[in-house]
Amino acid sequence: MIDNMLTRMKEKxxxxxxxxxxxxxxxxxxxxxxxxxxxxxxxxxxxxxxKTLKSKMKDVEIERLCYISQGYEMIESDDMVCVRNENxxxxxxxxxxxxxxxxxxxxxxxxxxxxxxxxxxxxxVTTSQAKCKIGMKREGIDTDIVIxxxxxxxxxxxxxxxxxxxxxxx
Length: 170
Description:
With 170 residues, this protein is α/β, with parallel strands linked by helices. 36% of the residues lie in helices and 18% in strands. The chain has five helices and six strands, in the order H-E-H-E-E-H-E-H-E-E-H. Strand 1, helix 2 and strand 2 form a beta-alpha-beta unit.
């Protein structure tokens, strides 16, 4: 119970620090995208989503950023940055050097696969310096390309690529 109270206090402090840094929004043809950051909240279906993205973005360097909610068990790996509530200090300070580095990098695209609003995911998406941010419509987050919310991530991915292919044609 005390852990939950501390986590909520930290999340409220982080929510106050969320500001959209100045960045230039740039929409690229999918064939011109060279780097992409994918972020999501850990769950049982994440490998299927990531394989689907990788198969559709073969020539793109994809980096992965996963938020692991309290109580969820997952083995971390070197090929993705994992963020937990413990990485959040009092006052909302992020205590994860890998996260700070990934948020400062200017990716061509950020894809947010999160279905539900979450302070940590919102912070990561908002703070990222990615040139184009794509995500589902949900409370507390604004992305450059918004795809209707309420979708499960595989349908979101399908709709996203349909929209991106139309941008290419236009």
